[in-house]
Prior knowledge:
The chain has helices at 11-20, 57-64, 80-90, 103-120, 124-127, 147-160, 216-229, 239-243; strands spanning 3-6, 24-28, 47-50, 70-73, 94-97, 130-137, 164-167, 180-187, 193-201, 204-212, 235-237. The chain is an alpha/beta fold.
Amino acid sequence: MRLCVFGSEGRMGRAIREEAGDSVVACYDTVPPGTPPGVPLAGHVDVMLDFSLPEAWDDLDRLLEPLDCALVTGTTGLGPGHREMLDFWASRRAVFAASNMSLGVHVLGRLLGTAARMLASAGDTGGDFSLEVVELHHGGKVDSPSGTALKLVEIWEEVNGPATRTLGRSGPVGPRRLDEVGIHSLRGGDVAGEHQLHLLGPGERLVLAHSATGRRTFALGALRAAEFVKDMGPGLYSMDDLLGGDAGP
C-alpha cells in the first residue's frame, strides 16, 4: 500500500510516518501558493492520509483533484463548508472520515449509546439522567471542544433529542437544565487524549472513560482505515463501517 501523508509535520503525521515506514511515498505539510493542480507525487498513491487543519483543505483539494486514490481524514474542527467538501470528495472517491482513529473510543461511543437507550427505556427515572463530558488533550491542540467530545454528544442526542450544549460554566448560571449537556475542555502537557462521560442521575452516577496512552494507537487506527478503504468505491465511510454495527465517534 502506497501512502501520501498530508499534514506530515504535525503530531499525527509524524506518528503515521514512523509507523508506516517505507509505505509512505510522499509527504506534504502545505502546498506552496501558485502550485497548479496535479502536484507531482512519487508514483502511484493508494491512499491520502490527512491529519491537518481545516484551513489547509483548499491545498488538500488541489492535491486530490488529479489523483485516483482513497482518502482517510482525521482532521477536526470542521465547519459546514468543510463538510460540503467531504461530500464532494466522497462523490468521486472512497473517503474515510473519523474524528478519532482509536478503536477504544469507538467502543466508548457504543457503550454510551447503549447506556442512553437503557436509561431512556426506564421511564421517568431513566429520563432524569444527564450527561457531562470532560475531555483532556495536550497543550498544542488548537480546537476545543475535541471532535470526539462533540461526536459523543451527538450519540447522546440521537436517543434523547437535541441538547442545550454548555461549554464550561462560570458565574451565576442558575440551575442546570435537564436537556443540558456540559462539555469541559482541559489542555496541557503531552496528553494524547482522554474522554470521561459522567451520566448523572438521582442518587447515582455512571462514569465511562477512555484514555489514550500514546499517539501510536491513533496511527495504527489510521493505517487500519487506509487498508479498509483503499479498494472501496466512492462514498463516505467511518469506523462504523470498519467495525460493523453503529454508534461511535
